[in-house]
């Protein structure tokens, strides 16, 4: 098992998620080697003792485990298999754990490229938003062998909630679980925005409507908790850009296609998210599709 006294963690991708995750690895005593295309993203980590590496290969050469937290499969491909990528620097027996939301093909390609080498390549995407990354309470869904999961346990626990760090199956299973979670959550978002808009236009008080849903068989975590970010605070969660939400919905549709399951509803939700992205911009928050409905009915959905 990796422990903080003897393990160096390499981390590539210090954005909304990676910045909080590295902060917690450091607070938990792990030595860090970091890289990002934006060096300024590493300033605080370096001031607190992290080492900067110029390339992903250098990160890998200096680490026992390399973690990637990158926007899209294309970025993960480039950072792992491109010039000066992780695979050209990683030591024999080393670990590379991709915690980005991605698809099984990415790590599968890397596994094929490095066939014959003794490498441990896992996927361990997360839920819990940037706030969960910042306070070390992420949910983690790991794909890999039981032995690899056990080896990574301490590292995962430095970033996540121990009760919600799950070994969900073999390599690739973590990505599949994470895409299912996002697809369902985004579907809840669109469905909730629709019924709230219709109810309000029909003259029902918004909070009375929400409480009625909560008291009914139609209740969901989204209606009870998550929607309040918009309804109470007008916060559409810019910590997760709608461009990345659209990427995740597209990846779920790709996965569905790859396994031969038609997903009419998921495809519809993806199109609604893409409309919101076109209308409000790539960097708008993941909950901006609710704004589409607010614009349609000509009023914001807010409660006291
Ligand atoms: P982000 O865009 O904020 O951060 C990505 C970081 O990667 C940036 O700092 C960027 O400079 C860096 N980067 C890009 N290309 C690089 C390269 N070639 N080499 C080195 N660094 C590079 O994204 P994020 O919100 O942190 O999301 C990261 C991943 O986590 C995504 O796959 C996303 O879907 C997933 N995720 C995000 C959230 C959230 O709430 N933000 C929640 C769960 C999962």
TrEMBL record:
Any idea where the 6-phosphogluconate dehydrogenase NADP-binding domain is?
A: 8-166
Which UniProt keywords are given for this protein, alphabetically ordered? NAD, Oxidoreductase
Bilayer-crossing regions = none
Q: Does the keyword NAD apply?
A: yes
- Family annotation (Gene3D superfamilies): N-(1-d-carboxylethyl)-l-norvaline Dehydrogenase, domain 2, NAD(P)-binding Rossmann-like Domain
Taxonomic superkingdom: Bacteria
Which residues does the UniProt record annotate as the domain 3-hydroxyisobutyrate dehydrogenase-like NAD-binding?
172-291
For this entry, the protein name equals 3-hydroxyisobutyrate dehydrogenase-related beta-hydroxyacid dehydrogenase
Organism encoding this protein:
Rhodoluna lacicola
Native organism taxonomy: Bacteria, Bacillati, Actinomycetota, Actinomycetes, Micrococcales
């Amino acid at each position: 098992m990796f422990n903080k006294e003897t393990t160096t963690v390499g981390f590539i991708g210090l954005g909304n998620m990676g910045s909080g995750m590295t902060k917690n690895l450091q607070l938990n005593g792990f030595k860090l080697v970091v890289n990002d295309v934006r060096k300024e993203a590493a300033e605080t980590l370096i001031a607190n003792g992290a080492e900067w590496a110029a390339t992903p290969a250098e990160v890998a050469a200096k680490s026992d485990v390399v973690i990637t937290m990158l926007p899209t499969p294309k970025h993960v491909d480039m950072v792992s298999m491109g010039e000066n990528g992780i695979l050209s620097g990683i030591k024999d027996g080393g670990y590379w754990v991709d915690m980005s939301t991605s698809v099984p093909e990415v790590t599968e390609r890397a596994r094929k490229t490095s066939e014959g080498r003794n490498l441990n390549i896992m996927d361990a995407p997360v839920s819990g938003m940037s706030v969960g990354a910042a306070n070390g309470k992420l949910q983690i869904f790991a794909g890999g062998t039981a032995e690899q999961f056990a080896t990574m346990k301490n590292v995962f626990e430095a970033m996540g909630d121990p009760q919600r760090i799950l070994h969900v199956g073999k390599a690739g299973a973590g990505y599949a679980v994470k895409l299912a979670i996002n697809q369902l959550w985004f579907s809840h978002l669109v469905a909730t925005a629709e019924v709230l808009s219709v109810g309000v236009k029909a003259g029902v008080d918004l909070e009375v409507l929400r409480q009625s849903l909560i008291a009914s068989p139609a209740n969901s975590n989204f209606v009870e908790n998550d929607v309040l970010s918009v309804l109470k605070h007008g916060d559409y969660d810019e910590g997760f850009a709608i461009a990345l939400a659209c990427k995740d919905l597209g990846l779920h549709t790709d996965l569905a296609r790859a396994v031969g399951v038609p997903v009419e509803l998921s495809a519809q939700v993806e199109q609604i998210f893409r409309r919101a992205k076109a209308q409000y911009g790539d960097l708008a928050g993941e909950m901006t599709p609710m704004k589409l409905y607010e614009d349609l009915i000509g009023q914001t959905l807010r409660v006291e």
